[in-house]
């Protein structure tokens, strides 16, 4: 069986379980379950702390795992990202009291407090900045007020908590993170295991496509077909079928969900009618 690590709690857990369910895999019914077997799909899921997943995967005990890019890099584990999943997005930034630093080059000789020591230390080393990094497990904003550090490095979403602490971000983002599928670096999987890994990835990619696109159907006159198809080119090309009424055709194509309303407006202006969209629940490209 394919052995897969899944986050057991936190912001990664719920969306990961939802995506796996959409991909056709069984998921645990109670949060106390640490392991379940999906015999129909020949998969075994292990529910682990998100911070530990990269370590388990790099050890070879588990074939692949779902974790955050930030947690993968911070762990320093011998594992690599093989598929971004598009949820649990976050941005890491430096922050300090106004006037402390204008850019990362000003951090030389300073102390940086963070919950992600591995990421920050590597980032500073890559830039050739000689600064100290202090690891804290949480509430890093207070590190400056208590004199533990001059600068913090943390996840920034709206920046409200930083502003409330009298801090401001500076410099370019340290990194942008999201949920990813990982596997051990340089793994030489058996042929059967590798085919299962690829099948797993195809299923997740199908979910990502299904979430990104909708199916659009509409009727239009033949003389407007080329203009209509330019708006809905589909992935390869749209399906076009003649209608019973002469001079009309039915068109079907996948379109980006976020652009669907605009495309419907443009098609209507061209004279298309009976325009509708439907959700895509599964897909293989």
Automatic annotation (TrEMBL):
Cofactor: Mg(2+)
Residue ranges of the TM segments: none
Function summary: Catalyzes the condensation of ATP and 5-phosphoribose 1-diphosphate to form N'-(5'-phosphoribosyl)-ATP (PR-ATP). Has a crucial role in the pathway because the rate of histidine biosynthesis seems to be controlled primarily by regulation of HisG enzymatic activity.
Gene: hisG
Molecular function terms from GO: ATP binding; ATP phosphoribosyltransferase activity; magnesium ion binding
Alphabetic keyword roster: Amino-acid biosynthesis, ATP-binding, Cytoplasm, Glycosyltransferase, Histidine biosynthesis, Magnesium, Metal-binding, Nucleotide-binding, Transferase
The protein's name: ATP phosphoribosyltransferase
Catalytic reactions on record: 1-(5-phospho-beta-D-ribosyl)-ATP + diphosphate = 5-phospho-alpha-D-ribose 1-diphosphate + ATP
EC number: 2.4.2.17
CC annotations in GO: cytoplasm
Locations listed in the record: Cytoplasm
UniProt record similarity statement: Belongs to the ATP phosphoribosyltransferase family. Long subfamily.
All copies of domain ATP phosphoribosyltransferase catalytic, residue ranges: 49-206
Gene3D superfamilies in alphabetical order: 3.30.70.120, Periplasmic binding protein-like II (3.40.190.10)
Domain of life: Bacteria
Positions of the Histidine biosynthesis HisG C-terminal domain: 210-281
InterPro entries the UniProt entry points to: ATP-PRT_HisG_long, ATP_PRibTrfase_cat, ATP_PRibTrfase_HisG, HisG_C, N-reg_PII-like_a/b, N-reg_PII/ATP_PRibTrfase_C
Pathway: Amino-acid biosynthesis; L-histidine biosynthesis; L-histidine from 5-phospho-alpha-D-ribose 1-diphosphate: step 1/9
GO biological process: L-histidine biosynthetic process
Activity regulation note: Feedback inhibited by histidine.
